[in-house]
């Protein structure tokens, strides 16, 4: 159980960092009448700009209104329950899977807290180069993405382990043409 507590602590730390960074974005980058400034971190690559995301990833479903908000809250709450259950049942020796689930849990909770408190998710991290701009995101989104990638790696790794353990068909005795001639 101690090992599981470690992974729940990872979730709590990531969740805290996400909420702290969103609070900073809301206070430092957002004025009383909307976003007030963009903070350029690395010119022509990375900046911070406060954004309210009323939908899901990439702003999809962002104009769905009140029913969409509650559907997204319900789906997020169900995902939290599912990931928590998976984290409790997963093999404590599978550190990669446990890390993936911890990050997924933190990210889902981070965005769920925003939806419950504000009705939208606070996004503020922007990657861009010249005219190209990656959709604005936050630390919770990053945790979800990294967690999903780690989970995919774990599934791929375990699939190969299972294939290596699977019994191989017995090789048929082969008779070479030379041995047939010699007999």
């Amino acid at each position: 159980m101690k090992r599981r507590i470690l992974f729940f602590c990872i979730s709590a730390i990531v969740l805290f960092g996400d909420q702290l960074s969103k609070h900073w974005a809301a206070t430092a980058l957002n004025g009383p009448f909307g976003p007030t400034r963009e903070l350029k971190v690395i010119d022509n690559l990375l900046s911070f700009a406060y954004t309210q995301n009323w939908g899901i990833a990439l702003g999809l479903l962002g104009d769905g209104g009140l029913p969409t908000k509650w559907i997204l809250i319900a789906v997020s709450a169900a995902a939290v329950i599912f990931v928590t259950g998976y984290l409790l049942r997963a093999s404590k020796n599978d550190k990669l899977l446990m890390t993936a689930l911890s990050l997924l849990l933190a990210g889902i909770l981070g965005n769920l807290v925003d939806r419950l408190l504000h009705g939208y998710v606070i996004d503020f991290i922007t990657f861009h180069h010249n005219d190209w701009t990656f959709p604005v995101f936050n630390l919770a989104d990053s945790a979800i993405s990294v967690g999903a990638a780690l989970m995919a790696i774990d599934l791929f790794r375990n699939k190969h382990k299972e294939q290596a353990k699977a019994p191989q068909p017995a090789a048929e005795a082969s008779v070479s043409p030379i041995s047939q001639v010699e007999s």
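Helices lie at 2-28, 65-89, 95-118, 139-165, 177-182. The chain has a mean pLDDT of 84.
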